[in-house]
Write a structure and sequence with these properties.
alpha+beta; Four Helix Bundle (Hemerythrin (Met), subunit A); paralog of FGE (formylglycine-generating enzyme); 4-stranded mixed sheet; 3-stranded antiparallel sheet
Length: 414
């Protein structure tokens, strides 16, 4: 019993530290947000930035206080404001003021930490539940960062001195082999399960994400106007959107930063122009692995060490993208850089369930999006908190979305 108690104490202390660190990051995103911006809906497709803060608090209360332990929630009347299914997005502009929502979050968090001292963390489902809620906040932090840019509240990144091209090799050859995809760890989301060992034919892949300098060449050669580079769906998207010349998110002078704000159609058109293609999810994971032996389940390209600024640009540390050569410590076994952080990377794989998939903790978390209209993105972005940075994590966007955090790298057959 003593050994078991010590193990549970270690789990509880690690979770307490992680939850406190994540909350500090969340609150830092609101320091310069006044009450007006807090309640503003920046786009009809998104909730006001302040609604996300209240939703984070409600979610941890629902999952870890009420549903897990049968405890009453503080401010029960707030559930109607912040439950995702109870208030349509256009009505969320009436969200409570900043001070009220901050107080709500503090009250829920105080009850949560009292609960943590007694939580049965030796139960695998209970442990998964705590990790799910932690990552739920981290995912909303990324959304909040994106909304800050829409509201004009994102400070400019200090950046790195630009160069016309990253130095060194352009592509690396990855030999045929196997890769362990997915995860059975307690942090793994349902769409990462069940892990399996997958055979991957040999291929080539870009060392770096496609940069703004690279994409400039595509634009200069009339890439947006040359129909031969675009899929049927891409041409239809171009015509409907009226887009003619460049991605959504462009930073002048940052030529060696990854291009971002591109839809799947733009990524595929560039790849076609370059005589390449997008990598499959399996190829991306093999290129991002810490070992090419096919058995390595290390979560990061460099191994198991916690991400830091020498290895990846993440966690809103510099408020934007960095040079693709700025984190040399993040190199994978295959020789690729920037596989985690900087920009999410489009792949050629539609979002689908792995064999043995079971929906958890609710059916619509992943299952509703296995619809053939969502593509897998990998790797995290400059806005992703560290709890989302792992090789097995699967993001997914609709093909038409021009998310400012999304870029890509190209691959080719061996």
């Amino acid at each position: 019993m003593i050994a078991r108690s010590q193990t549970l104490d270690r789990h509880a202390e690690a979770l307490r530290t992680a939850f406190a660190e994540c909350r500090a990051h969340t609150l830092s995103l609101f320091e310069d947000i006044d009450d007006t911006l807090f309640r503003t809906q920046p786009d009809p497709g998104f909730s006001p930035i302040g609604w996300h803060l209240g939703h984070i608090a409600l979610t941890e209360g629902l999952w870890l206080l009420r549903d897990s332990a049968g405890l009453a929630l503080p401010y029960p009347e707030y559930e109607d404001y912040f439950h995702v299914e109870r208030l349509a997005k256009p009505l969320r502009v009436g969200v409570l003021g900043k001070d009220a929502v901050l107080a709500y979050g503090e009250a829920v968090r105080a009850d949560l930490f009292r609960r943590l001292d007694e939580a049965p963390l030796d139960d695998p489902i209970e442990l998964r539940r705590w990790h799910f809620v932690l990552q739920h906040e981290a995912m909303h932090d990324e959304t909040i960062t994106f909304l800050r840019t829409l509201l004009g509240a994102r400070p400019e990144a200090p950046g790195w001195p630009p160069s016309s091209r990253p130095p060194g090799e352009a592509m690396v050859e990855v030999p045929a082999g196997r890769v362990l995809m997915g995860s059975a760890d307690s942090v793994a989301m349902d769409n990462e399960r069940v892990p399996s060992n997958v055979a991957v034919p040999g291929f080539r892949i870009d060392v770096y994400p496609v940069t703004q300098a690279d994409f400039s060449d595509f634009m200069a050669e009339g890439g947006y106007r040359r129909a031969e580079f675009w899929s049927d769906a891409g041409r239809a998207w171009l015509e409907a959107s009226g887009i003619e010349h460049r991605p959504l998110h462009w930073r002048e002078g940052c030529t060696d930063h990854p291009v971002s704000g591109v839809s799947l159609h733009e990524a595929e058109a560039y790849a076609s122009w370059a005589g390449k293609r997008l990598p499959s999810e399996a190829e991306w994971e093999r290129a991002a692995a810490a070992s090419l032996d096919g058995e390595d389940d290390a979560p990061h390209p460099w191994g198991r060490e916690v991400p830091d600024g020498e290895r990846a640009n993440f966690g809103n540390g510099v408020h934007g993208t960095t040079s693709v050569t700025a984190q040399p410590g993040g190199r994978s076994a295959a020789g690729c850089l920037d596989m985690l952080g900087n920009v999410w990377e489009w792949t050629a794989t539609e979002f689908h369930p792995y064999p043995g998939f079971e929906p958890w903790p609710y059916r619509s978390y992943s299952e509703a999006w296995f619809d053939g209209r969502h593509r897998v993105l990998k790797g995290g972005s400059w806005a992703s908190p560290r709890w989302l940075l792992r090789r097995s994590f699967r993001n997914f966007y609709e093909h038409d979305v021009r998310q400012i955090l999304a870029g890509f790298r190209c691959a080719a057959d061996a």
